[in-house]
Structure formats: C-alpha cells, structure tokens
Task: inverse folding
DNA sequence: GTCTATAACATGATAGAC
DNA sequence: GTCTATCATGTTATAGAC
C-alpha cells in the first residue's frame, strides 16, 4: 500500500530530526535529508515549501512528542518531596538517553527568533513549568517558585549539556555520566544545600583562613 | 601610523567575535567579516588560511580574555563561604552583561570536536574549575566536589542561558533578570537547600521509586 | 615584503519548468 | 516526481598599491 502524503511527510521529518540535532540547521543539506528519505532534493520541495518550513515542522513534531513524558513525572500522586525526587531522576535519565531533545532546545535558544521562542514555550515548557512552580510552592514556600523551578531544571539540564567537555575537566570520572549518581547529588543539594553556614553575613573576621 | 600585522589581525578577530556569537559559524560569511574590517573577502585570506582558522583564533582570543576575570573571584582572601558568595554574584553579573562569552561556549559545546573541547577546557575551564573544586572541598566535604562545582556553575549559567525564552514562561517578571536577585536565590539554595525534608526515605515508598 | 582588490571556480539552497 | 537555472558563499589566483 502506498503511504499517504501525511505519512510521507512524517517520515521525512523523523528522518530529518536527528540530522538537525547533530549538525545544526545550516550544516544539514536538503540532499542529506532527501538521501535519508530515499528521494531527491528537489522532491522535498513538493512536501515542504522551503528548508525553513521543513525545519520548523520537524521541531514541532519532536517537541510535542517529548513534552508528554516530561510532565508525566510531575502529575503523579504522592508526597511533593517524592514527586520532585522522581522528576529529577527521570529527567536525568531522559537527558542521558536522549541527547536530541536537549541539543535541539539549546540550538533554538541560540538561533531562534521571538516568534519561535513563544512557540517553543507554549508547546514545550508552559505546562511543564506551571506544574514545576506549583510543586515548588508546595515544597518550599519561602522560595520564589519561578526561580526555584528554573534552578531545578538547570541542575539536571546543565550536567548533561556539558557532557561532551566534562571528561576533560580535572577530576572527571566515567561514573559522573550515571543518571543515578547525578540525580542523587542534585536531590541532596536541593533538599539540604551544602548545610554549612547561613547565607548572609558569614565569617568576615579572619583573614587568610587556614584550609579546612 | 600604519597598523602592524599583529594589530591588524587582532582587529579583524575583534570584529569577527560578535558576529560569531550572534549568528554562529555558518551564518557568518567571510564577506561579512571583511565588510566589518573594511577590507574584501579575498584579502582575509592573506591573514588567515581559512575561515576555520580565523574562527579558532577568534575563540582563543575571547576565551583567554574572559578567563582571567572568572578566576579572580576565586583566588581572593576571606572565608570560603564568602568567596563562593562573591563568585556567584560576580558570575551572574558577568553573564548578564556579556552574552558573547556564554553564547560562544554553548555553540562550541554543540558544534565543537574533541580537539576543540580539549583546547577550550585547557584554556578556559581547567584553572577555574580546579579552584572551584578546591573551594567545594573546603566548604562541603560531604559532597562530591566535582559534581558540586558543576552544579554551582550550572545554576548561574543556566538562568542566563535561557534568558531569551524566560520572559515567555508563566510567572516571569523583568526583575528575574537582575543579577542581584538571581545570585541571592542561588546562594540561598546552595547553602540551605529548600530546607524541607531529609533527602532519603521520605514519604511512603511507591511503585517505580528509584532506589534510595 | 606587506596589504588589498578583483575575478573566477565549486558547491549548496532554492525556484521554476517539465 | 525530475531537471535545469540562479544566487550566495568559501576559496583560490593574480595583480595592483604602499
């Protein structure tokens, strides 16, 4: 049976997504996309009016796809602290397994325009972020929920964003790739902090403190 | 007075850096760089053998320039907690003022190759990161200093990395751009955590809970 | 020798004819 | 769907200006 036009478009987009994530918009040629979809470059223009349009449709597809899983972990039953803990563990696992999502978002933040930012926030982050701030309000009423939500995402996202260069940092070990280890560290930090000193007006007297 | 060869090259690089930060390697044409330096595209090849070489030299210049300021805040006198607090505040201020550095690093992480990763870590992060881990060891001996150092950088870097889309998130206010506010939030979180619950064995155990 | 301008070539994105 | 033309861009070769 011949694939419908819609199926054909979807297939082309699914083929194109990993290419864009790996190399970025400019370094992906229409010929590469066409080759992966087993048609010729010109034929792509039968389905999509331009490379830009193909790209934007690909983004929409992959973002809406990944969004669901992200929000799931937040809308479960249980104690708020457990929900946060679960979220961090799942998020780290997903970031570790799927570099595509993270890379595409980073590329969008660097190269997108205002219209695309609105689209991404609306389609990808809005619902997830609302759930996050709600959880933060429950869990830590003394904190600004907006800043705290971003901080929590930051901790997980950044650890895996810098994966490619992390191994060259002094002291790096392969185990630092392990989602369990990273997530446990993040959860401990979020709940307890480094638990050392109050955060204002501390220890101003001694000059040249001896190392601990 | 005629500029020397070195001055001429430096000028071209300084002109090129903001272009690369804004649009990325591929979207910057040799003709654009040449126009900004008030020469023609062909003439660029008298100074640099290729676009790649021009780009790499530009990166080296901007990275070594920014590195110094980053490490300064860490090598001051004072109580470790104060040093960390100072670092976070300075880092946030710098990230807020200078988007170029941050954008170039994000682009490098996305598009660089192993050789370039090594170069960047060596020239930009190694010294800074060593100081960070040393500080972390002093300040929070119970934590893995490597993971903690990354987490601290993550909190500051990510808040400003997502600046372009932050304003579209529900609950966003202009004050969340203010380095003082962001830095204070980060410092409070690092030192105290959300101060709510212990980080293991909380609530009831549920199906699919990650191991503690 | 040192810098620059000009012209020309190869490749890739894209539009339009078939 | 395919094929061809056009345009932008990295790059090279060559020659002029100081």
Result:
């Amino acid at each position: 049976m011949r694939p419908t036009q819609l199926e054909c478009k979807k297939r082309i987009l699914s083929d194109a997504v990993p290419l864009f994530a790996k190399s970025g918009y400019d370094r992906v040629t229409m010929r590469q996309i066409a080759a992966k979809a087993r048609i010729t470059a010109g034929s792509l223009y039968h389905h999509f009016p331009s490379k830009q349009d193909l790209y934007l449709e690909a983004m929409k597809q992959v973002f809406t796809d990944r969004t669901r899983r992200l929000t799931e972990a937040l809308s479960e039953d249980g104690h708020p602290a457990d929900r946060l803990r679960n979220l961090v563990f799942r998020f780290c696992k997903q970031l570790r397994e799927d570099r595509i999502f993270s890379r595409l978002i980073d590329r969008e933040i660097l190269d997108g325009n205002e219209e695309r930012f609105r689209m991404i926030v609306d389609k990808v982050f809005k619902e997830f972020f609302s759930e996050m701030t709600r959880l933060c309000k429950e869990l830590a009423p003394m904190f600004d929920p907006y800043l705290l939500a971003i901080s929590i995402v930051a901790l997980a996202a950044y650890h895996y964003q810098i994966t490619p260069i992390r191994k060259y940092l002094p002291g790096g070990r392969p185990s630092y790739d392990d989602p369990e280890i990273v997530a446990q560290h993040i959860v401990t930090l979020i709940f307890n902090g480094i638990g050392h000193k109050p955060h204002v007006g501390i220890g101003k007297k001694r000059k040249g403190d001896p190392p601990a």
